[in-house]
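Late entry, written up from scratch paper. The run itself happened at the end of the previous shift, but nothing got recorded in the book at the time, so transcribing now.
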Amino acid sequence: MPPGAAASASPAREVRLAAVARAPLAESIQVSGTLAAEEQAVLSFKVTGRIEQILVDLGSRVAEGQPVAQLVTTDFALRVGQAEAALQQARARLGLDPAGSSDAVDPLTTSVVRQARAVLDEAQLSRERLQTFVTRGLSARSELDTADAALKVAEGRYQDAIEEVRNRQALVAQRRSEFELARQQARDAVLTAPFGGMIRERTAAIGQYVGVGTPIATLVRVDPLRLRLDVPEREAPRVVRGQKVLVSVDGDPAVYEGTVQRLSPAIAEGSRTLLVEAEVPNRDARIRPGSFAKATIVVDADAPALLVPASSVVTFAGLDKVFVVADGKAVEKRIQVGRKSADRVEVLSGLGATDAVVVEPGALVGGQPVSVAR
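Output as recorded:
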């Protein structure tokens, strides 16, 4: 019996056909990477003290400016009171209202300078009178010399008075700074979150005496997350800022969408890859920083392609093939596949735009009689 006779003698198998479609299919790059927190900070106090409260714990979600921990405030309140009293004393010596807020003052209007000015004016008048008396011969020259000396002393005391007022002004400024510093330290006794996020680690306990910079907790920003990807050098030229990235994480069926935001200016010589960073929204904190992720970078969302149903492609021994129908028989055609989607495959060669392929060929063989389902 000649080859194919058995196939010809067998009853025709009913098959369904699907036309080869020319349609856009997203062109993408498959890479993997690590999801990292956009920002991470180790929180610590700027002042020394004993912890009175810790208001967060592992996994706590905090908003920007929300208190995280607090020191015992007794000592800070006493320092504020001490600094305020010293400021009031300095203002009183300058002739200002102790409880006032403005430290501006004209030195010439202060009592110390006005007294010195009065003495200076009196010495000036006495010297002018004696000058007249000496000119008329009514007083001795020695009296004029004494008046000159008294005038110089009065001028010196006047300048000393002005300098004293300026010293008092400087002292008020110093006391004002000390008062503001004490108030700032009192505010620093409450540790607040510099940005919104979640507590990754708590490293202190209530009652613990901590110094400046002692770690209290670690805060991470979880929205958005930063996805770091190593793109092969051959694919790097196709990646640009703003491209969409589809992200999946092990154990999570959801697919998250991000955007390429940053690209390294150089290729890593050791791995021959380009470091790419994408931002992935994570408003519900479902993705954990540090997770391994698989990413699809969509480099062209509308790239044209010849498409066939994925169920029409048969792969055997590393070769891809499809079946078409000619003269009532199945005809095998080898193809080269390209991009893939959930239910369609791109055909790079082996088929034409007017062909139709058998859907779900199963055990169909070339030359087998077929009938097309209507």
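Residues 268 and 298 are 22 Å apart (CA to CA).
(Scratch paper discarded after transcription.)
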